Amino acid sequence: MLARVPSLASAPLTVVGRRLPVTVPPGTSIAWCLAAIQRTGTGDSVFVTDEAGVLLGVLTERDVFGRLVGPDVAQGVDLDAHVETYMTTDPHTLRLDQTVRDALELMQSSRFRNVPVVDGDRRLVGVVRQVDILKFLAESFPEELLNLPPRPHQRMKQAEGG
């Protein structure tokens, strides 16, 4: 019997590049959180952690915009409110020993664009975004991807340089 060849999806998350999350302590205003998201340009979420780095919650653009266009639209968003007012408590997380497949399944089933990565003590150690996984997969096939024409469907009438 042939040994099973491991797939890229079976690789642990340790092989995928992770981004440093934007973190804030409890009590931070929504206005400050939104400014931090705009300033960093690295995502659409702010992660709320305690002094030890333990993940308490996450504030996503969906949390904020859901209040602006959802059933609570009349109330709007109080930009001076503390992040705890709008954040998602106990968010879904991944651990570094989980696989790329686990991350993809969670992202697809829950429609997450990024997922916090925590250690055994639930301390935030990074965030995995869809683009990080795509980059990992693309880097696994450099020759195949680098040799593709810019528009694979495009046909040239004559050879280049000829």
Describe the protein in words.
The termini are far apart. The chain is globular. The chain has a four-stranded mixed beta sheet with strand order 1-2-3-4. A three-stranded mixed beta sheet has the order 5-6-7. It has helices spanning 30-40, 61-69, 100-110, 130-139, 142-146; strands spanning 23-24, 45-49, 55-60, 88-89, 94-95, 114-118, 124-129. Helices cover 28% and strands 17% of the residues. The chain has 162 residues and is α/β, with parallel strands linked by helices. It has one domain (18-146): CBS-domain, CATH 3.10.580. Mean pLDDT is 82; it is low at 1-5. Helix 1 (30-40) links the parallel strand 1 and strand 2 (45-49).
In short:
This protein is α/β, with parallel strands linked by helices and 162 residues long.
Defining traits:
globular; 162 residues; 4-stranded mixed sheet; CBS-domain; alpha/beta; disordered N terminus; 7 strands; 3-stranded mixed sheet
